Amino acid sequence: MYYIVIAATLATMVLALIRAILGPSVYDRVLAVNMFGTKTVLLLSVVAFLYGRPDFLDLALAYALMNFIGVLAVLEFFRRRSERRTAENQEAQ
Predict the structure, then answer these.
(1) Which fold has domain 2-92?
(2) How far apart are CA 35 and CA 37, in angstroms?
(3) How much is the pLDDT for 38?
(4) CA count, 13 A, side-chain hemisphere, 78
(5) SS3 track for the chain
(6) Is the pTM of this model over 0.85?
(7) What is the rounded distance in angstroms from the CA atom of residue 19 to the CA atom of residue 80?
(8) Can you tell me the distance from the alpha carbon of 19 to that of 7, in angstroms, rounded to the nearest whole number?
(9) pLDDT at 23
(10) Domain extents for the chain?
């Protein structure tokens, strides 16, 4: 059962990578990277349970926090860049 969950999680991680590469917009790519990070946390948790290694759960939690902060930082960067471009276009007119 655990191996089926691991295989399914890896399959969805591959699909997330494909969306991150082919995504039509930046936000689709960021969402795909966020999904990949979430699936990584899930995979670490399943492996921790499968092998009886509770220290992997600490790693999964740390990775989840880094993923969350990283996605927020990237979205803030793109939001500010969009605002700068809008302001520059208004000044040019």
Answers:
(1) Helix Hairpins (1.10.287)
(2) 5
(3) 95
(4) 11
(5) CHHHHHHHHHHHHHHHHHHHHHCCCHHHHHHHHHHHHHHHHHHHHHHHHHHCCCHHHHHHHHHHHHHHHHHHHHHHHHHHHHHHHHHHHHHHC
(6) no
(7) 24
(8) 19
(9) 84
(10) 2-92
Can you tell me the distance from the alpha carbon of 61 to that of 67, in angstroms, rounded to the nearest whole number?
A: 10
CA dihedral 51, 1, 35, 47 (to 10 degrees): 0
Closest to 9 measured CA to CA, from 32, 29, 38: 38
List average pLDDT for each run of 10 residues in the chain, which is 93 residues long.
93 95 90 94 94 91 94 92 89 79
Residue with tokens 């969009």: 82
| pLDDT for res 7 | 96
CA distance linking residue 11 with residue 21, whole number of Å: 16
37 touches 20 (CB < 8 A)? no
